[in-house]
Every structure is written in structure tokens, then in C-alpha cells.
Amino acid sequence: MNILDQFKLTGKKAFITGGARGIGKSIAMAFAQAGADVAIVDLDLDVAQQTAKELAQFSVNTLAVKTDVTKPDDVNAMMTTILNAFGSVDIVFNNAGICINVNAEEMTYEQWRKVIDINLNGVFLVAQAAGKAMIKQQRGSIINTASMSGHIVNEPQPQCAYNASKAAVIMLTKSLAAEWAPHHVRVNSLSPGYIGTEMTLKATQWIPLWEKRTPMGRMGKPDELQGIVLYLASDVSSYTTGSDFVVDGGFTCW
Ligand code: NDP
């Protein structure tokens, strides 16, 4: 098959957690543009529905599902809803995440648990629910959003729980990849550097420093992650599993 055709997702079924805005929304656009039916999974149903509506321009089927990825019952219900609507699931962009900036010695246990619950436990619950369906199908690609913070310690902002959660996502990814490779289910992770979204753009005091410390001298845009995720979602990456892909404008070089 022509290499460019292998990037197409025509007829594939995808869902994206934290898909209503930010990086998740940009990836949703890429999947829909490539021909996949896309379900937007998020906490806020109104915003998820709005994003799903925007995807309709690509003439694919879309769906919005309200889900808290930290709640097993929500995640299982989401999976049932998506399977009922789409019939199968080929691609998951497992992306919902938050960051709380607090000095380690002052962080409450509640704050620690909230970050780990969404960024790590949520990623596991979603991967497990999708993995079960994919094992039955004997095919699928899961892309977990980690971060360059799983590789380095950011500064000046204190975010030990976030960094720990993202490092864990990278190892969880490798573990799932090894377990599920015999079932033709691939699992990889994406480690972005600083990307301009609601998560980062509100931290106006830190942006000049982040830019200075990035060899490319700027933050990335969500759309600059589309290519690598499309690669991982599509059949072009058929021999790629258990890998982490850093896209950070060179930040981790220094
Ligand atoms: P945003 O804050 O813009 O978007 C995150 C989305 O996740 C929101 O729609 C949010 O919903 C949703 N979400 C949060 N908690 C839950 C939950 N419990 N269940 C379901 N959905 C939830 O963040 P980004 O787009 O910037 O980040 C996306 C991912 O990329 C995260 O995992 C983040 O850690 C990672 N990342 C981001 C980087 C960056 O520089 N922006 C760099 C490296 C990694 P709501 O709005 O309703 O809260």
C-alpha cells in the first residue's frame, strides 16, 4: 500500500479523553480529518458536544461522552456507549490530565492524590477498558499522553506529583505494550514539552523562562503534535510499541 494511504484512518473508530479542548481537541481534529469516527470524552458535556459538532465538517460520525476518568463505573459506561455507537474501538488517545503547582513540603495528600488519580489511575482505567475490547478484536492502538516532565524536573514551578505521574505513565505504557503485543494491541506514549493550552498559557509569569530554556525558543502549538499521534494511531506504525515520543522543541537536550 502507498505510504501516504497508510496514514489514513478511514473507517477506524477513535476516542479521546480530555478531548474537548487543548491538545485533545487538536488530535480529535487530526483523527477526524484522517477519516476516523471520533468520540470526545470529557468532564464537561457541553464543551465536549461543541467540539464533536466542529468535527462534523470532516463528514465522520462523532459522539460526546461525559466521563470522569478517575471513576471506574464512568469509564466502563463510556466504553459501553462508544462500543454501542461505533461497534468497535481502534484508537485511543488517553490524554486527560491536570497539573497542580505546589511545593512538595506543602502539598496536601488530597492534592497529591488528585493528580495521581487523574494522570495515572485514569490513564490505567481507560487503557484497561479499551484494552479488553481491543484484545477481543485482536487489534488496536493506544496512545497515552505522558510529558517531558516524565523525563526531567521542570523549574521554576514545583510539580512533584505531576512529574511522578507522567514518569509512571511512560512505564505503564511499556508494561501494557509488552503484555498486549501478542494480541496485536500497540501501546505508546507521547511526551510533549511546553504546549500552549489553557493548562500552560495562564502561567504568564513562567512563559518567558520556558521559552528561553527551549532550544527552539518558543512553546509548541497543539497542532504540532498531530503528526506524531497520527503516525502512532495509523498502520504506518505497525512495528512501534512500548515507545515514548518526546516532542519538546529540544527542551530535554539541555
Ligand atoms: P487542558 O487543561 O487544556 O485540557 C485537559 C482536558 O482534560 C480538559 O478538557 C479537562 O476537562 C479534561 N479532564 C481533566 N480531568 C478530567 C477527568 N477526571 N476526566 C475526564 N477529563 C478530564 O490540558 P492540555 O491539553 O494542555 O493537556 C492534555 C494532556 O497533555 C494532559 O495529560 C497534560 O498533562 C499533557 N501535557 C500537556 C502539556 C502542555 O504543555 N500543555 C505538556 C505535556 C503534557 P475540564 O476542562 O472540564 O477540566
Automatic annotation (TrEMBL):
Descriptive protein name: Short-chain dehydrogenase/reductase SDR
Q: What PROSITE patterns does the record tag this protein with?
A: ADH_SHORT
User: Under the GO molecular function aspect, what terms does this record hold?
Assistant: oxidoreductase activity, acting on the CH-OH group of donors, NAD or NADP as acceptor
Tell me which Gene Ontology terms the entry assigns under biological process: carbohydrate metabolic process
Write out the similarity annotation: Belongs to the short-chain dehydrogenases/reductases (SDR) family.
What the entry lists under PANTHER family is as follows: 3-OXOACYL-[ACYL-CARRIER-PROTEIN] REDUCTASE FABG (PTHR42760:SF115), SHORT-CHAIN DEHYDROGENASES/REDUCTASES FAMILY MEMBER (PTHR42760)
Q: What is the lineage of its organism?
A: Bacteria, Candidatus Moduliflexota, Candidatus Moduliflexia, Candidatus Moduliflexales, Candidatus Moduliflexaceae
**What organism does the UniProt record list as the source?**
Candidatus Moduliflexus flocculans
Q: Keywords on this record?
A: Oxidoreductase
